[in-house]
């Protein structure tokens, strides 16, 4: 695990974009895993700049997103389909047929048995198989929740888990309520890649910024490897890069980090 601390969010985002760009230039048909949320927005803005000013080519890139809220249609302004379109896809030359964001409209669901609902099970198996069909994810972009979750793998998630539906914790619901008119509008369920799925990517790139992520970053980097901090699984990955700003790295011991 390589932890690189940057002066601020802008420097962190620029470095992340440089890493992604270098991988695309080396492999034009890169399989790129993407994340949503406020943290990667700066990364995506810099990627767009590289596309427009330096010709970074996405015409052959294949993308897979980590997750999506259950029950929100793709056109909803808080869906992750919408987020990716508005923050990245509409401003680069990516082929829409190469874009994969989990489908999350399954009609009426019995929440007590959704884990075995045939529609859900079939879709999750299909998503896993699509990743395999393209040879696996080359580099997966990740954020980290204040409770240490990656994607929507909340504390207690199996570190060997696969794509599935997860119930969101109250902390995650509260954290995400800033994007909705009220906390009541925040979905309580999401479809997400599992920790095991994420860990199969050949390279991981986790971004973290701000005071609110300092405890989670410390637990992920220095704490024990435990399902109570799903991001701690990155310690087991052969090629995991964590980029932070100074605030998110404030609680790390100096020997664990380098400075960008």
How many individual domains?
1
Morphology call: globular
Low-confidence stretches: none
How much is the radius of gyration in Å? 17 Å
Helical residue percent band:
25-40%
- Give a count of the beta strands, DSSP E runs of length 2 or more: 11
Structural class: alpha/beta
Oligomer: single chain
Please identify the top-level CATH class.
Alpha Beta
Mean pLDDT rating: 93
The largest pleated sheet is described as: 8 strands, parallel
What's the number of helices? Answer: 7
CATH topology: Rossmann fold
Amino- and carboxy-terminal Cα gap: 15 Å
Identify the CATH architecture.
3-Layer(aba) Sandwich
Strand content: 15-25%
Helix and strand succession? EHEHEEHEHEEHEHEHEE
Chain-wise SSE layout:
Blueprint: E1 2-6, H1 9-26, E2 31-34, H2 41-54, E3 62-65, E4 67-69, H3 80-87, E5 99-100, H4 118-133, E6 139-142, E7 164-167, H5 170-176, E8 189-192, H6 195-199, E9 203-208, H7 214-222, E10 240-245, E11 258-259
Parallel strand pairs: 1-10, 1-11, 2-3, 2-6, 3-5, 6-9, 9-10
Antiparallel strand pairs: 4-8, 7-8
Helix pairs in contact: 1-2
Describe the structure.
This protein is an alpha/beta fold. It is 30% helix and 17% strand. The protein is built from seven helices and eleven strands. The strands form two sheets. Strands 5-3-2-6-9-10-1-11 form an eight-stranded parallel β-sheet, with helices on both faces. It has a three-stranded antiparallel β-sheet with strand order 4-8-7, covered by helices on one side. Helix 1 (9-26) packs across helix 2. The longest helix is centred in the N-terminal third of the chain and has 18 residues, at 9-26. The radius of gyration is 17 Å and the shape is globular. It starts with a strand and ends with a strand.
